[in-house]
Design a protein that fits this description.
Blueprint: E1 3-7, H1 13-23, E2 28-34, E3 48-51, H2 57-67, E4 72-75, E5 81-83, H3 90-117, E6 121-125, H4 138-158, E7 164-170, E8 180-182, H5 190-205, H6 210-220, E9 229-232, H7 236-245, H8 248-258
Parallel strand pairs: 1-2, 1-4, 2-3, 4-6, 5-8, 6-7, 7-9
Helix pairs in contact: 1-6, 2-3, 3-4
């Protein structure tokens, strides 16, 4: 019997790449989600896109009613924000956390009974920024740090129940996703905000395509045992090692220099 896989945020970018790579394997029945599936021009008729807003409880329940129990949940849906911490309102922090953190928690909770029954897997797609933090991404960084802690705790809770949980933290990938830029009129941070935004765009344009991560996850699911954590893409592994061994002050200085700040 095929393994049933649900991928949130599968209409484009990393989520779509994951879905398309898993579809190539006849062992999976793949279901993707989108907030507005009717607006998506789906180039693969083997991918079923289901309406899902991870910030809405009833939408998650409706998705479950359509898909039923699953074997593998890939929490990929997410958004980004860019701005000086002083310029970002608490309301904006809450909006981002609703998608990047609470959406993952509620989606996982609703699908977990079936995943436990099937002794399945949960893969949470975080960001390298959760480990290697950047300036002007305070809200996004905080949401991914929260996801990191949640994932590791969940892994320990479910490890004796036959459910494997892992966190993947991708580095930059060449996607079309642009962060919401939050900057107050006349902000003293405007120039530096533009500097880091330009640097991020350059980095992404030189990065691997999302398909590389899709292929990686497809290979990962073939493994009998998943590790707790996978940094992936470019120099992701090196950066995580440097973060562990270098003093905080040096990491801070090198980070600021690398983004021309």
């Amino acid at each position: 019997m095929n393994k049933k896989v649900l991928i949130t945020g599968a209409s484009k970018g990393i989520g779509k790449a994951i879905a398309e790579n898993l579809i190539e394997n006849d062992k999976y029945d793949v279901f993707g989600t989108s907030r507005n599936p009717d607006r998506v021009k789906n180039s693969n008729d083997r991918l079923s896109l289901i309406q899902l807003d991870v910030t809405n409880t009833e939408s998650i329940k409706s998705c479950f009613d359509q898909v039923g129990n699953i074997d593998i949940l890939i929490n990929n849906a997410g958004q980004s924000q860019l701005g000086a911490a002083e310029d970002i309102s608490v309301k904006k922090y809450k909006e981002l956390f609703a998608v990047n953190f609470f959406g993952v928690v509620e989606t996982s909770n609703i699908f977990l009974p079936g995943i436990r029954k099937n002794k399945g897997k949960i893969i949470n797609i975080g960001s390298l920024i959760g480990t290697f933090n950047l300036p002007y991404y305070s809200s996004y960084t905080a949401s991914k740090c929260a996801l990191q802690g949640y994932t590791h705790s969940l892994r320990m809770e479910l490890s004796k129940l036959g459910v494997q949980v892992t966190l993947i933290e991708p580095n930059d990938f060449a996607t079309t996703i642009e962060p919401e830029v939050l900057c107050k009129e006349g902000s003293i941070y405007t120039q530096k905000l533009n500097t880091i935004r330009d640097k991020i765009r350059v980095n992404m344009s030189r990065s691997e395509p999302p398909d590389a991560l899709g292929k990686f996850i497809a290979k990962l699911l073939k493994k009998k045992k998943l590790k707790a954590y996978y940094p992936y893409g470019g120099n992701a592994r090196m950066l995580t090692i440097l973060k562990r061994i270098l003093p905080h002050e040096i990491v801070h200085k090198l980070t600021m220099q690398s983004y021309n700040l």
